[in-house]
Design a protein that fits this description.
The chain is mostly helical. It has 21 helices and 3 strands. Helices cover about 75% and strands about 5% of the residues. α4 runs parallel beside α9.
């Protein structure tokens, strides 16, 4: 019975692999070796990017039943954050103290809870004080940013893009510390007020945890210390980063951009999506609107033009490496793969997608978080009954999903123009990938991404060869989706409802 069940589970994969093998043989026969290899490698590159977008979408939907229509905007935001950090991180280090200060204030909610629930307030005053706290907190946020030259700080990357030889030559001077210090203070107080509001003063129906009372204080202390350090180092840190090895700076850009995306995702889930779980249609409208807001914000900060992120020296040295081992020595711009000259950076994208697939597999199969996610997909009520903080798990999952999209954006930035609408196409392909693979299956997302990447690459090849409209190549992924859904309406790994 076990063997039979295992064969049944593996059957979709075997069928897909069989179809891919047959098509590969036919493609190799009629396209020739060089064209086939180049097109297949391009398909793998696209597939890796599609997977990073689709994997985030599918784990969010699988556990939370949330369709994030701002996912493409997160992809775009990751690209901008990575490009900004790699080119000139002045903007990011200028905002970091404010973000940390605000987070420090918000983190005190559990500290305030046992105090404010004891307040004797009538029902009307409960609403009034909450409204007062929220409005006051938002006013302080605005005051913290008034006359802060955010646009000027953002322009440092634009200046650097035009003055690559000396990226700090025209960097906008930051406020002196004697003036700047009050901004983190205002953001901290704002976070405190919002934390008190979220603790719901006077609501004695809340339960106060008696275990590990020191954890909130430790979290607050760590965030306050980080805020102080970020405030003191906000001018020297960008210079230090720009003086380090460019390859190391690129790796840090990947980490920072992914972290920013994950943090943004967590903030969005806690503040905007969490109150709307009982209204899924409102979540769809919210994420659609959020996508537009993020794109307009990006255009305000960096202008609606396309920027190019330089490839790190690891993938940009002149010449062609004859083998992988030769590339490790020379870090050439291109590499010989089965007699085909192919950009070495695109091989990095393929490797990055594979690493993310393996990492997700390990997390989902062998970690406690993965066990909770898999159990939550099957029966969310059971997970809650076991005493697991489902809200916290939701925040982590949403952060991981958005972080994956941001990582994909950073990875794409060196060979795709960085511009406000760059995430739209990847979001669409991400949704198609999820539908093909089966909603909630990261393995299905990998298979779907592989199919779509190959379909798009070979579609582009056929469009160029026979002088067809590019729209035909774009439609190839939709054709694949239709075929899969006709054969299996729930997707390759989808389960019947």
């Amino acid at each position: 019975m076990i063997k039979k069940g295992l064969f049944k589970q593996s059957l979709p994969v075997l069928i897909v692999m069989g179809v891919i093998l047959v098509l590969a043989v036919l493609g190799y026969r009629f396209m020739g070796e060089e064209s086939f290899v180049r097109t297949a490698l391009s398909g793998l590159t696209l597939g890796a990017l599609y997977f990073m977008v689709a994997a985030g979408l599918t784990i969010i939907f699988g556990l939370m039943d949330v369709l994030n229509f701002a996912h493409g905007a997160m992809f775009m935001a990751g690209a901008y954050m990575g490009w900004q950090f790699y080119t000139n991180p002045t903007f990011l280090f200028g905002l970091l103290p404010l973000v940390l200060a605000f987070a420090a204030g918000l983190s005190s909610a559990s500290i305030w809870l046992p105090i404010v629930i004891k307040w004797n307030l009538s029902e009307p005053w409960k609403k009034r004080i909450n409204a007062f706290l929220v409005i006051s907190g938002l006013v302080l946020v605005v005051l913290g940013f008034i006359k802060l030259d955010v646009l000027g700080l953002a322009e440092t990357a634009m200046v650097a893009a035009m003055n690559a030889g000396n990226p700090l030559a025209e960097a906008t001077a930051q406020e002196p510390l004697s003036v700047f210090w009050f901004r983190p203070l205002l953001l901290f107080i704002s976070g405190l007020l919002l934390a008190i509001s979220s603790a719901r003063p006077g609501d004695k129906t809340q339960v106060v945890s008696t275990s590990k009372k020191w954890v909130p204080w430790l979290r607050l202390a760590v965030l306050v210390i980080l805020t102080l350090l970020a405030t003191l180092c906000r001018e020297s840190a960008p210079i230090f980063v720009l003086q380090m090895n460019a390859n190391l700076r690129f790796i840090l850009a990947l980490i920072v951009g992914t972290g920013v995306g994950a943090g943004l995702g967590m903030i969005i889930e806690v503040s905007l999506i969490r109150p709307l779980y009982s209204r899924p249609f409102y979540i769809i409208l919210l994420t659609l609107g959020l996508g537009y807001v993020l794109r307009e914000t990006i255009q305000l900060l960096w202008d609606p033009v396309a920027y190019a992120m330089e490839r790190p020296p690891l993938f940009s040295q002149p010449g062609k490496a004859e083998t992988i081992f030769a590339w490790f020595r020379g870090h050439n711009l291109t590499i010989d793969i089965l007699g085909v000259t192919f950009p070495s950076y695109r091989l990095f994208i393929i490797a990055l997608g594979l690493i993310m697939l393996i990492t997700l597999f390990i997390i989902m199969r062998f970690s406690r978080l993965g066990m909770i996610i898999r159990a939550g997909v099957q029966d969310r009520d059971m997970v809650e009954a076991l005493g697991i903080n489902v809200k916290r798990v939701f925040s982590i999952v949403f952060a991981i999903g958005v972080g994956l999209a941001a990582l994909g954006g950073i990875g794409a930035a060196p060979f795709v123009p960085v511009q406000p609408n760059m995430g739209d196409a990847y979001q669409m392909q991400g949704f198609i990938t999820v539908v093909i693979g089966g909603m909630g299956s990261y393995g299905g997302a990998a298979i779907g991404a592989l199919l779509l990447g190959m379909a798009r690459a070979f579609g582009d090849f056929l469009a160029l060869k026979f002088t067809l409209s590019p729209a035909i190549a774009e439609a190839s992924t939709v054709v694949v989706m239709i075929i899969v859904l006709l054969v299996k309406p729930s997707g390759i790994f989808g389960k019947k409802e």
